[in-house]
Amino acid sequence: MRSKKLIIIPAYNESECIVDTIKNIQKKASDYDYIIVNDCSKDDTLKKCIDEGFNYINLPINLGIGGAVQTGYRYAADNGYEIAVQIDGDGQHDPAFLHDMENVLLERNADMVIGSRFIENKGFQSSFARRLGISYFTKLIKLMTGNSISDPTSGFRMVGRSLIELFSQDYPGDYPEPESVVEVLLDKKKVVEIPVVMKERQGGVSSIQPRKSVYYMIKVSLAIVFARLRKLRNKKR
Amino acid sequence: MSGRLRILLIILLIVFAVFLARQIHKKKVDIRYVLPWFLLIVVLGGLVIFPQVVEFITTLAGIALPINMLFLCGFIFSLTIIYSLTITVSKMNSEIKELSQKIALLEKKIRETDNGNK
Question: Pfam families per the record (chain B) (predicted)?
Answer without folding.
Answer: DUF2304
